[in-house]
Structure prediction request, 179 residues.
Amino acid sequence: MGMAIYSDRDFEKFFREFYPAVYAFLVRYTGDAELAANLTQDTFLRVYEQREQVESIEYGKAFLYTTARYLYWNHRKHEKAHQNYLKQLSESEEDDYNFLEEVTREETIRILYAAIDKLPPRAQEVILLNLEGKDNNEVAESLHISLNTVKSLKKSAYVILRKLLAKDYYLILLMLLGE
Prediction:
């Protein structure tokens, strides 16, 4: 083929002659037959769009392979950018989740302590010492009261807290179960 690509017929001949070679070239480059087929199609589309500028078949071949390589590298560049975006998005979603979890936790604690502040003073002390991790015997010792008094104060505190926290019960329950 010694002439330039002037007509659709010339392009069709050029396409039939060079498509298998460009496709094979891109399969080797990409390692992906489907991607290679897409890039080969895009390559010939670019050549077709520029066919008036193709003065000879040799120039057309050079333009063809240069375009194929350019399209492949451009694809890789966009793929890397896309992967970086997905990675950042993933990290951002994780940060958003951690932020939301922390806000929920802090709000739950705030609601719980606001309700505890409404308890009678001695019941409040018992509950706060339990939240610090002390068992009933340790609470009794700390407050210099009997174990039965601790149990009684705790029971009455729970009744009051259930009423105060009824509307926020599920939030608190979810938070406590999540830890």
Q: What stands out?
A: The chain has a mean pLDDT of 83.
